[in-house]
């Protein structure tokens, strides 16, 4: 089994590293936060004193960090001490430009690299059921796949460097927009005297059908497992939706793509976040949409 260095042991990285240990890999982990290091130790990982200490002798390095600047910071530190021909995977959600710069850095040092952001949230991280969207050369992807399979159930090669991040932000832009669309439909239905169940029964089997409706329905009742049934907790925090919609807008500007609904969705989620709702599941946006009545 491979020796794997894991850097960034937060809500996602902690359980992902634990799944690599469970699969039989030797995992050497590092995080800036002591409590996260202690949890990884309890999960069976070895603990290093620094990111550089963790990667020495590793066949594979995985990073799971907040944003592009953290990833570039850590990759700049660790890549020069990695074994030539070893593999580095970044599973954070970051901007496409930083992801491409990170790949270029790895290539200059003879290290294979893959950007592999995830969907599936903390539940997917714990249950090893994440979807990985990967970008990088064919041989790097082939080396990464068996490792990613220990943490996820669907591994997709989307193309060259940065393609995983591109797929992630395009997907989440659809998600942000579609959740607002579904919320507006329920808010309008309520004003028109339509029951939630009636609208769900029709739209879920008609042309309005989408994931935001059928899996993550923003009103309690029709889909018992959706966060709406538990006061919009836990789930995918609205603050993370703002992050992803902002990454999509930055990419759209840089690439010269027109995304007017993506921009509007970003603004709506930013207002929700600014109202102190950043920790609420993103389907809670229906509360904000109802509050716009008479204003928008
Ligand atoms: P988190 O804030 O819980 O964890 C990030 C960890 O990185 C923290 O423990 C922090 O101490 C550590 N860290 C930061 N800089 C470091 C450094 N220089 N060296 C070592 N450790 C460092 O975040 P998370 O929820 O685990 O998310 C991680 C990434 O996954 C983010 O990019 C996020 O957008 C993405 N993501 C999160 C979710 C989710 O539901 N939480 C879902 C999909 C994708």
Automatic annotation (TrEMBL):
It catalyses: 3-hydroxy-2-methylpropanoate + NAD(+) = 2-methyl-3-oxopropanoate + NADH + H(+). Residues 3-159 form the 6-phosphogluconate dehydrogenase NADP-binding domain. The keyword Flavoprotein does not apply. Its EC number is 1.1.1.31. Pathway: Amino-acid degradation; L-valine degradation. InterPro entries: 3-OH-isobutyrate_DH-rel_CS (IPR002204), 6-PGluconate_DH-like_C_sf (IPR008927), 6PGD_dom2 (IPR013328), 6PGDH_NADP-bd (IPR006115), HIBADH (IPR011548), HIBADH-like_NADP-bd (IPR029154), HIBADH-related (IPR015815), NAD(P)-bd_dom_sf (IPR036291). Pfam families: NAD_binding_11, NAD_binding_2. Keywords: Branched-chain amino acid catabolism, NAD, Oxidoreductase. One of its GO terms (biological process) is L-valine catabolic process. The active site is at residue 168. GO terms for molecular function: 3-hydroxyisobutyrate dehydrogenase activity; NAD binding; NADP binding. Residues 162-288 form the 3-hydroxyisobutyrate dehydrogenase-like NAD-binding domain. It is an enzyme of class 1 (oxidoreductase). Belongs to the HIBADH-related family. This is 3-hydroxyisobutyrate dehydrogenase. It comes from Bradyrhizobium commune. The gene is mmsB.
């Amino acid at each position: 089994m491979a020796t794997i260095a894991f850097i960034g042991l937060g809500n996602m990285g902690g359980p992902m590293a634990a799944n690599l240990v469970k699969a039989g890999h030797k995992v050497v982990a590092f995080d800036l936060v002591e409590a996260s290091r202690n949890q990884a130790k309890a999960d069976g990982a070895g603990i290093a004193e620094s990111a550089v200490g963790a990667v020495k002798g590793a066949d594979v390095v995985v990073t799971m960090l907040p944003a592009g600047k953290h990833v570039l910071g850590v990759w700049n530190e660790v890549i020069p001490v990695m074994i030539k021909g070893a593999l580095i995977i970044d599973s954070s959600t970051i901007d496409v430009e930083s992801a491409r710069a990170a790949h270029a850095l790895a290539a200059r040092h003879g290290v294979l690299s893959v950007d592999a952001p995830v969907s599936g949230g903390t539940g997917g991280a714990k249950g090893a059921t994440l979807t990985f969207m990967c970008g990088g050369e064919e041989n790097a992807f082939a080396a990464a796949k068996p490792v990613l399979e220990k943490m996820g159930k669907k591994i997709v090669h989307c193309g060259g460097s940065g393609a995983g991040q591109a797929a992630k932000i395009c997907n989440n832009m659809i998600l942000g927009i579609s959740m607002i669309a579904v919320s507006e439909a329920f808010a309008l239905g309520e004003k028109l005297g339509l029951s939630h169940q009636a609208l769900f029964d029709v739209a879920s089997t008609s042309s309005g059908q989408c994931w935001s409706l059928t899996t993550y329905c923003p009103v309690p009742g029709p889909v018992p497992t959706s966060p709406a049934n538990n006061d919009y907790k836990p789930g995918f925090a609205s603050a993370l939706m703002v992050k992803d919609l902002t990454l999509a807008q930055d990419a759209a500007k840089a690439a010269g793509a027109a995304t007017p609904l993506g921009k509007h969705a970003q603004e709506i989620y930013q207002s929700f976040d600014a109202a102190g709702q950043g920790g609420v599941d993103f389907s809670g946006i229906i509360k904000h949409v109802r509050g716009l009545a008479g204003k928008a």
